[in-house]
Amino acid sequence: MAEAAEQDLLLAAAFVSDAQYNRNIPFRTSPEAVRLYHLYNHWMMRTATYFFIFLNLSLALFEEPAVYPLPFLATSVLEVLCLLVFLGRLTHFAKVTLHNVFWKDAKNICIMGAILLSLTDLGIYGVLRLYGVRSIRWSRFMRPIFLINFAESRQIRRALRSIRNTLPEITYVFLLFMFSLLMFSLMALKLFGERNLQTAEGLPYFKNYLEIVFDLYVLVTTANSPDVMMPAFDFSSWYALFFIAFVIVNTYIFMSLFLAVVYNNYKKHLKNEIRKLAYMKRRKMIEAFNLLKEEEGEQFVVREARWKQLVKLVAPDTSNSHRELLLRISDDEQKGFVDKKSFVQLADLLNIQVVTLKIRRHPLARWAPALYGSAPSRLLRGLVRHRAFVWTFDAIILINAVFIALDEDSISYAEWVFLALYVIEILLKVYTYEPREFFGKTQFWNWFDTLIIFAALTATILNATLQSTMRYNSQQILDIVFILRVLRLIRIVDSIQRFQVIMNTLINIVPTMLTFGGLTLVVYCVFAIIGMEAFHGKIQYFPANSNAPHALECGNPALKDSLFARGKYCKNNFNNFASSFIVLMELTVVNQWHVFANGFANVTGQPAKLYFIAFHIVMVIIIVNIFVSFILEAFFVEYSLEKSEVETAIEQKIQELGMGVQEDELQHEQLLDNMESAEHELEGDGGAKAQSKGLVFKIASKRYRTVDALLQRMFEAEIPLEDEGLSFEEILNLSPSSAIPRSPSSESAA
Amino acid sequence: MAEAAEQDLLLAAAFVSDAQYNRNIPFRTSPEAVRLYHLYNHWMMRTATYFFIFLNLSLALFEEPAVYPLPFLATSVLEVLCLLVFLGRLTHFAKVTLHNVFWKDAKNICIMGAILLSLTDLGIYGVLRLYGVRSIRWSRFMRPIFLINFAESRQIRRALRSIRNTLPEITYVFLLFMFSLLMFSLMALKLFGERNLQTAEGLPYFKNYLEIVFDLYVLVTTANSPDVMMPAFDFSSWYALFFIAFVIVNTYIFMSLFLAVVYNNYKKHLKNEIRKLAYMKRRKMIEAFNLLKEEEGEQFVVREARWKQLVKLVAPDTSNSHRELLLRISDDEQKGFVDKKSFVQLADLLNIQVVTLKIRRHPLARWAPALYGSAPSRLLRGLVRHRAFVWTFDAIILINAVFIALDEDSISYAEWVFLALYVIEILLKVYTYEPREFFGKTQFWNWFDTLIIFAALTATILNATLQSTMRYNSQQILDIVFILRVLRLIRIVDSIQRFQVIMNTLINIVPTMLTFGGLTLVVYCVFAIIGMEAFHGKIQYFPANSNAPHALECGNPALKDSLFARGKYCKNNFNNFASSFIVLMELTVVNQWHVFANGFANVTGQPAKLYFIAFHIVMVIIIVNIFVSFILEAFFVEYSLEKSEVETAIEQKIQELGMGVQEDELQHEQLLDNMESAEHELEGDGGAKAQSKGLVFKIASKRYRTVDALLQRMFEAEIPLEDEGLSFEEILNLSPSSAIPRSPSSESAA
């Protein structure tokens, strides 16, 4: 019986933890499976998986063509190791989930297929290599599959699903755009083809239909404006009208239309996904409630003891006092149990970062109370807390900026003075404020300051030592010192309130931006591997003073007189993984991409252009537009959302218990001031506030919330409590594009 | 008494007409002023005003430096004429509006100032010219003021207000962006300044701080990527990281942030403006109601006769049957009067284009009924109505496209065949469908087809005549023929349903796009005039075979070896108004703008770059972003809005009266089919439908609705009928950024 209760608790903990982290894995409910499931979700297991995924991806750096060559044996052993880890993780997952769900999920099949194909390819390549035959390592394209398909990469998969859902509509707009492009090209052929005009390079102008289509496609990206127009414009000014019409229709209208279509679909899709997640969460919390519920009067409830056991299991790191606070919020009237409505909130409660501020006296006040409390010490602390202290250091930063811009020696005398000033500033602040608070989790700028200053100090000292002992300036260290010196100036931004708001938005966007980093990584990896297969070694870079044959033509006579060689672009090649990434980055920026396309087409034949066009369509038209959509949406959500209901409830409770500080006092200087006055009060009477045992709580700053969490809140309000939602099966099978039927349709209003 | 009633009617008509066209001019209510006000709003007066505004703007084409030189006397007489017209229009306006309102309005003061200054400047310039002294015509900058400030240009003023409201927020983001730019430049100076690197042109690389700032600003616009990176990248691959970080932070994040800020403010501002307009409209309708109301039982109403007089005055063009329909909708129960609620709808009712479809027999059926009704004729009409007829002609268009791409002679034999086929197609359609319907107002594609085909036919015949009689090919005519031939192919787009939807969105966007055309015109005019003053004559274009001195350096030795001269950009200069516009267009497209900036800076000194940076900030960062915001918003509104309440009411009524066709039958082929069957029915019994007197109504197609109208509907639903709104004064004084207090706050929900 006790064991059954224990198992129920474990199962309930799994549900709550899933709800808290928005996982949607339908796991088996057998006791062993639940234990394995807890292990599966352990942060160390997850970190290890990511480590091996990135190890697997970065193998391309060491395989031929390598940036840092390793013997084939070493890379293949590493690859086999990675694949075994993936297989192990997948087996673990299979043991945890329901059988039919596991085999119905395309993700798992995909991973298995990729592992199998990779091993096969590795085997074939290895054997052929033994016999001295070179073949293509085609399975390398498949490596991003692991990044996409492991359950941890939910965000990347969501972005990909969003792209897939947008594709049909994008395709129609794209076809219309292509039609317009082909029409304009036809007009261009008719208007300019028979004029015998020449481009600035002396080549025939607008003679060949396919070349015109390519040139005008490049004009849509604006990369060859105004060059492509000049010959016709020189011939007659009226022809400029053709190009103006072209740019308005294709660059301005169609490209905006692409953004509009992508954004519209992204928003629609995001809403549905998030709504699905909110349903899932509610459903899981109700499952957990049903496992633990006991009858109490007319309703089912979860008793206090049981509830505490559950919270301990789900969040072992929370302090007793924090747990007590959560209980006081959930069991408002101290009846000794938590009802369904309050229980369902638990996942959200756990997600809200409630920071426990221990009201502690400064360590010096404990160790040397007489000294710390003396008049000069009090005066000093008063000075540091004064606004003028901040202003003084802002002024010092500005003067420092001028010195950086002016100084001619690499490390000047003034530099030491500024470093010393900054170190003194930090020491003074630590002297005044409580050190553990000063380096609290949410004190971004304090951490930033301290790290930058001490890194700069270390590097400067290291460099000075090297210079005085070995008479040698390390270029790497100097570069780092330069960058650190300039980075210090960023601090001034945080002194201005208006800039803080913008910075907060930017900081909030970072976590989800990593999703797009992942997406970009996937696309780059695939294109880089294709690029290396197609263009490897065709273009070589020679240093400026080289006298190798064709050094000026990037080692390839086919590039003679090309814009590629004339622009000195030889180092932009696909000769290794790192170079390929840099080329792809330059192609993402778009400018001069036609020079690259023409350059590589000269070397390997005209179809090479298709590679560059494909990259432009995938990366710029789709992914960059999704990125912009995401930034727009994040920005609007930031502007439109205020505090959530649950947060307000927690704050109220904290205030009721007299253990709170207002969020609007959260500016760190003020907060710390406030804390000290609270401390005095406690020292004074120790009466009404004795219960707080030297603690105050506060909701962690709004500054570091993710857009995802904000969006989820928007939809949770829509789901009525009594609506137990659909079953897991139904939710999982929901097509992402269909709204959930029972929810109040807010689609039309939005 | 009768005269007073007459005056009330006239005044009410002015109110209703204002409400219908969303004018918000507080006019005087004296009988004479109301008559003058009707005259002021007459379409001929408005068209004349616009004509003179554009005449005034286009004077720059004829003044020195002129595209088409006219004697100074001619242009100055024209200018004085324009100014007199503006003065007349303003006087007319002053006579119409309230005295204090007129003098408080900045618009009017602006216009008067501009007229005065222009006359003064013209006088001074004329006198100085007589004495042979050249001076600057500085008043030319002021000409766009007339375009902005005349009451007709509400949309342009609204866009400008929107920009003004966005400026504070944009400024903060811009300052942060500038800070980031300056920081990166400082790092670049430290990292690369002492390496003694050289650019591809052999110039020193990243030596001078201001030059670095400019180069990195250009990199934000992507125009010098990857050239600006190559020297550092060639030196060490690691330096690529600096540029990647720079592009991510500044190009991707900050530029998206600009778009987000502009879009967010644009949306907020637009909502408030439109809400204000909706209030205005309601208010005016209530004023009109109060003028005409009579007591009836317990409520005030407007009697039928009075109502009809009013509608006749406001919309003299509507047919009797249309008026009868509107009355039946407003006076639902045929009580002989219209109550307040229905009366207030009148402005919207008048705005809905109800097309009166006269069910007429085909003229041939009347003139030669035997022939038209004969079996072969019926078969022919059946064939033309069949889907296969459309498909056949789609196939012909595709074949034509291939012929156009292939043919070598300028006008080939095949061309005549295709032209003949198209003409036959049109004739067959006119034979089958009723001609007046076929060329109905909303039959966009029929008009398009017919115009294109007949223009092509005319031009081809003209060219053939010229060729056979004078053995001379006119290049202009040939060019037009080429373009017309290709434009014919567009028709194929309309055959595919999915493309139609996108085309409709695009067509709906056109009217408001004209606003941005206006805005762009204003910015271009100002910058073109400044550009001509600063750079006129500094750069000359010489044809390729010219042997003028410095022909290759655009006539200016300072451009030797510059990218400007090497790119053969000499024709991009500010030597006349038209050239300046083309240069500004190229700068709007952004690519290579730094080459222009450097070229002109070489010729006239480094401060010239400021002109180009200012243009980039104004045009690209602000106006293009507003344009994109507008397209995004238009697209979303198109997707989210369905039929309005009023429209639904009208349609219901039309259906009730049995005089309607469903909107979903509006596809023109189907519609016409449907009409014919209705015709047969009428011929058959003439019973139930006899009342329709051969008429059916339909709501004009949704295809041609403006975004403005759609948005306005969104907000009208929010205003309760009983809320008479604020007084005129209050509405006029509303700050555009404050929401109207009494409206239900839907801001947070949106």
From TrEMBL, chains A, B:
Molecular function (Gene Ontology), one example: monoatomic ion channel activity
Gene3D superfamilies with a match to the protein in the record: 1.10.287.70, Voltage-gated potassium channels. Chain C
Any Pfam family the entry gives: Ion_trans
Gene Ontology cellular component list: membrane
Residues passing through the membrane, by range: 43-62, 68-88, 109-128, 170-189, 238-266, 388-406, 412-432, 444-464, 505-530, 610-636
Record's keyword annotation contains Nucleotide-binding: no
All residue ranges annotated as the Ion transport domain in the record: 48-268, 386-640
Subcellular location: Membrane
Keyword annotations from UniProtKB, A to Z: Membrane, Transmembrane, Transmembrane helix
SUPFAM superfamilies given in the database record: Voltage-gated potassium channels
Membrane topology: Multi-pass membrane protein
InterPro entries: Ion_trans_dom, Volt_channel_dom_sf
PANTHER family: TWO PORE CHANNEL 3, TWO-PORE CALCIUM CHANNEL 3
Stated name of the protein: Ion transport domain-containing protein
Species whose genome carries this gene: Zonotrichia albicollis
